[in-house]
């Protein structure tokens, strides 16, 4: 059994590409999606007609008007090129009394953008018309601005904040955990698929003829897949904690325990898949479908909290990803401890035990 | 020592092995000859306990191996039809792993590995990755792995399929030595009748899941004919010689051909000496001599109406 376990590492050393690329992909995706773009504002390249005076003030006004869009100055040709290439969804042309929006395709944000820009124009028109009536327009503008920053009526929204001292809901962590768990599922299931490969090449028969028993073969492969999946997630989390300064909370132990339970459940699901498929070709087709849909349903790509469809929510109840994300977010974002997450962890272990039982049986029956 | 009793395997509709009865005695080499899909691999898998028979039994020293497979597994070396190795590892690493799972370790393991490498002639290439090996070398290392635990019986499933004649000869010679020098019992599967003829004491011919004929090579070919034909060519006609041959009682028939004569003699009656002696006395110059014996190929053709390889 130890020989079987060690053999897999020896083989990994010779062909590290697949597992290595899973690690690299995780890092790239976390950085690209959660790391660099902190604001979720849509960037809008903006250029001005030569007739427009005080372009900087315009840009400021536009950016003050909304948080959903980020306007930045650029050249006309450049912005049109970027639109054509799909780099940005829209570009804005600012004229003296009018504006024009360029785009490749209409989308849901277009109306909002139109409204924001139109409002800004309207407001500016009012202020500038009024300012034209007074002696010192600059002074007037300043007063209007000061007055509006403390208007007589204030509408404010209050949302319950996070616990004192704990990190709050955080897109970066959502991405970090979502991506690490997602790519680790690939690593785990593809590592497990070496069992199917051994069956195909005939090495499994050789092992069966030796004094090694079949269950030892399964344990050998499962423990290898477990260790490699677990290591992959933990390494990435530690890397983002210490190198990129992500705040994953104080309870590292609870994070690691959650990862351990999740990996167990995924190994078990991998065994179940192996029991269900008939060939390695089938496996290669099934694995991406299963992993991607489980990741989507379980909230690895976006927080499950934003989903309202009952069917999807019902399905997400049997997906390990749901519980792992729930537990990880509870610990890292909302400062909860082991005592608060024992339920999702218990469910993960339960899913694991069930799937493993059925999976091993199915594999056995095929042999 | 090892026998199968009405061994049968049915895959869905397909009867892959049908009432196969065969036996192996200590130290003999037995061939299993048959075309593609005859059921050779299926039979071998059942004998080596990798496949459960639909009905029938495999007996090792009189005991069924189906209920208790471990005993026979220990003494069995199985060379599968496919290259069952970790191709991204070296030959040495493969041998180490398979040795370890048989409980070998340390110096004993190293010694055994070098020994089997010697047998298959790959000592120099042991550190190379299996995937860089030639087809013949892969076949050889595939055999080496099956020898690690010093099996008593070695079962080989088409060990020479798809390789060059040189490697093939090497393997055949190796199998012969295993049998003759190490006293191993060999069950050798092939669809090349030359190999089985050359290596095996006894032969089973299989087709469509059934054993259709069995015996030594001579017994099998005698199914076809009890005579053999000798064709002798001379530099010119020698009527005297023909006369004398006709008078010889153990020669059944003499006919003159364009370049010489054609004799029909009882099978195995060893008439060549007589022919040479007479030719010597007549000072006849023999330009060629050809003994035509029916081959297993002919036997197969005779039994099934088909060629062995088509
Ligand atoms: N696992 C299986 N499932 C279904 N049918 C099978 C299976 N294994 C073998 N067969 C069928 O059983 C028959 C005998 O196959 P087998 O592999 O024993 O032939 P073989 O004599 O070894 O042929 P070859 O010389 O090509 O190796 C074939 O018709 C094959 O299609
Ligand atoms: Mg075969």
Automatic annotation (TrEMBL), chain A:
It is found in: Membrane. It is a multi-pass membrane protein. Its main location: membrane. Keywords: Membrane, Transmembrane, Transmembrane helix. GO terms for molecular function: ABC-type transporter activity. Residues 141-366 form the ABC transmembrane type-2 domain. One of its GO terms (cellular component) is membrane. InterPro entries: ABC-2_transporter, ABC2_TM, ABC2_TM_bact-type. Pfam families: ABC2_membrane_3 (PF12698). The chain crosses the membrane at residues 16-36, 176-196, 217-240, 252-276, 283-304, 341-363. This is ABC transporter permease.
Automatic annotation (TrEMBL), chain B:
One of its GO terms (cellular component) is plasma membrane. Residues 2-233 form the ABC transporter domain. One of its GO terms (molecular function) is ATP binding. It is found in: Cell membrane. GO terms for biological process: daunorubicin transport; doxorubicin transport. It is a peripheral membrane protein. It comes from the Bacteria. Keywords: ATP-binding, Nucleotide-binding, Transport. InterPro entries: AAA+_ATPase (IPR003593), ABC_transporter-like_ATP-bd (IPR003439), ABC_transporter-like_CS (IPR017871), DrrA (IPR005894), DrrA1/2-like_C (IPR025302), P-loop_NTPase (IPR027417). NCBIfam families: drrA (TIGR01188). Belongs to the ABC transporter superfamily. Drug exporter-1 (DrugE1) (TC 3.A.1.105) family. This is ABC transporter ATP-binding protein. It comes from Filobacillus milosensis. The lineage of its organism: Bacteria, Bacillati, Bacillota, Bacilli, Bacillales.
